[in-house]
Sequence to fold (414 residues):
Amino acid sequence: MKDSWKFDTKVVHVGHQPDECTGAVSQPIVPAVAYAFPNADAAAAVVSGQMEGTFYGRYGNPTTRTLELKIAELESGEDAIALSSGMAAISSALLAFLQHGDHVVVTKDIYGGTYNFVTQMGVRFGISHDFVDCTNLEALELSIRENTKAIYVETPSNPLLTILDLKQIAKIANSRGIPLIVDNTFMTPYLQRPLELGADVVVHSATKYLNGHGDVVAGVVVASSKVIEFIRKRIAGDLGQNLNAWESFLILRGLKTLGLRVRAHCENARKIAEFLAAHPHVQALHYPGLTSHPQHELAKQQMDDMGGVVSFEVMGGLEAAKAFMNQLKLILISFSLGDPETLVQHPATMTHFSIPPEERLQFGITDGLIRLSIGLEDVQDIIADLQQALAVIGGQIEQMESPKVNEYVNGIVD
Fold:
């Protein structure tokens, strides 16, 4: 029967049954560090991995294990490991395949934290890299070397929402025997399941939509049982990247409403993207749900909806972007995404600040680029806040504020 369940049913019920001792429906929180065994043989079997179980908090936790099994099933994976942050998940997934002398291919517009890891810590460890436009499959193939041990992509990308063809990239990776790692944070398994499209590893910042309430820092890696066991025993455990029971519980609680929340995020984002696309002070819009997006058709094939993030460029560059953000009343200036609140950030000075300006421009991250994580507020209130903040830009661009512009904007909201 479970095989026929729809996503909203799975996300509530999979991986958890009422507690055998108490009958509690809600997932118990087990904060223990150490665990006792009935005999020495049982202890040895659990530590060696021959028998399922928990032996020390740095290598796992019963509450966290429930979370791992649930996400693994939602992503159609064999197993998963939940870790202390999204960057813990990203770094552990990369280090599962890369060591000194190896090379990794990375999609060109990438999350700033991933960029830092690859260009700084990776270089310190003797790992080389190339940033490649992975929408160009020929360029991707040409970038692969004899020592390439992983291909790392995110789709949609952060912050430009570029869509990559996961089936085709997976074919290239699989033909060379190279694992494909996909950051699925923006989509969640509700909207996109990369393993079903041929990827080998999926990573998430569970801080974002999986938790959905802005009160947890966590990450998840989903892959084969062999890869997850290696990460647990040889990387995350040794580096102390374990996720604690309380935060695991909060994510499990948040997951129960994942489908409901993501549908609302997507619906609001679509309306806001349409509003911004028609606004005279917006010179470029990045949102795969519009037919103007270069990978719109691919997005429809690969994703079940278009997500809750919208990026756009305002006329006037850096100063206009700052003026717009400073004028917002409802929308909050913040780094994260996937929260109930609508959040705005300026990639060039916030999430992607560490990328040198010339590289940011090569990646398409301009000084006028703004990223919105659309929240769960009434969409008319969000649009009204965007409307009054965009009006400030008009006064900076050759007095573009005029009765005609006012009529236009007021018409949108009405």
User: Anything to note?
Assistant: The two ends are 48 Å apart (CA to CA). The first strand starts at residue 79 and ends at 83. Residues 10 and 20 are 20 Å apart (CA to CA). The mean pLDDT is 93.
